Amino acid sequence: MPRSFLVKKHFNASKKPNYSELDTHTVIISPYLYESYPMPVIPKPEILTSGAYSPITVWTSSAAPFHSPLPSGLSPLTGYSSSLGRVSPPPSSDTSSKDHSGSESPISDEEERLQPKLSDPHAIEAEKFQCNLCNKTYSTFSGLAKHKQLHCDAQSRKSFSCKYCDKEYVSLGALKMHIRTHTLPCVCKICGKAFSRPWLLQGHIRTHTGEKPFSCPHCNRAFADRSNLRAHLQTHSDVKKYQCKNCSKTFSRMSLLHKHEESGCCVAH
DNA sequence: CTGGGGATGGGGCCC
DNA sequence: AGGGCCCCATCCCCA
């Protein structure tokens, strides 16, 4: 599974975009070209206005709102450590992807009783915590948090919808980043290919220049992309990262494991 | 068929 | 808030 958790993804659905359909917002980068890469211009986001998404949830207390731990990917074999990057944190349970939509029932009688009554001598105290979405007030933060978790927050959590597709995001920043995958504002001057981000264009330009700044410490190979060097390093490793659950055969790449599984190993068991 | 390289996409984190 | 970089994932192609 992809590491990304902010957006629902479907396997084999990530085909390359049709650039010809998406080029209406692209901006050709300046001719100073590949000495210092100019910043691409992001199209003015009329796409971000006119109610394309719901209001942001604002918490009325300072306590931490929703956090979402990363879901685990395909578990690597223990003992493997990359010489390239930071060590991934151990997998944790994914609470973010859980669907709370089943909890959208009307507010229960019990929760109604949690609301302060003005005749209550402690009413002033009880109004300390107010839900900014429905204006309900609670005497304790935990009461408010529970309310929001069960009702308001669960409904507004994924509130930033893309105009061009059905994807939804938990933050405006994530949505803006995603929209660039539609508008593709970074255009290669050499071949005209468009990319969503400057550094993607930068990597693409290396395919023209032949620059390979990532060298393998074990052999004399060099790569234009760090990820490709990382994949290459697996070929030097005795311990392959990805293991078939059925035959225990290990592979250097997840894609090879997938191929292996699809070729019928798992069917035989 | 398998393994590996090349190229690319995309969300997260940090500054 | 946005840019840069990180990492992971995937697809395509070739030996």
UniProtKB/TrEMBL annotation:
Q: Which InterPro entries match?
A: Snail/Krueppel_Znf (IPR050527), Znf_C2H2_sf (IPR036236), Znf_C2H2_type (IPR013087)
GO molecular function terms noted in the UniProt entry: chromatin binding; DNA-binding transcription repressor activity, RNA polymerase II-specific; E-box binding; zinc ion binding
Classify the main location: nucleus
Supply the alphabetized keyword list. Answer: Developmental protein, DNA-binding, Metal-binding, Nucleus, Repeat, Repressor, Transcription, Transcription regulation, Zinc, Zinc-finger
Zinc among the record's keywords? yes
Cell compartment(s), UniProt: Nucleus
Q: Where is this region: Disordered?
A: 81-117
GO biological process entries: cartilage morphogenesis; cell migration involved in endocardial cushion formation; cellular response to epidermal growth factor stimulus; cellular response to ionizing radiation; chromatin organization; desmosome disassembly; endothelial cell migration; epithelial cell migration
Record-level GO cellular component terms? chromatin; cytosol; nucleoplasm
Residue stretches making up the C2H2-type domain: 129-156, 160-183, 186-213, 214-241, 242-269
| TM stretches of this protein | none
Q: Which family does it belong to?
A: Belongs to the snail C2H2-type zinc-finger protein family.
Q: What is this protein called?
A: Zinc finger protein SNAI2
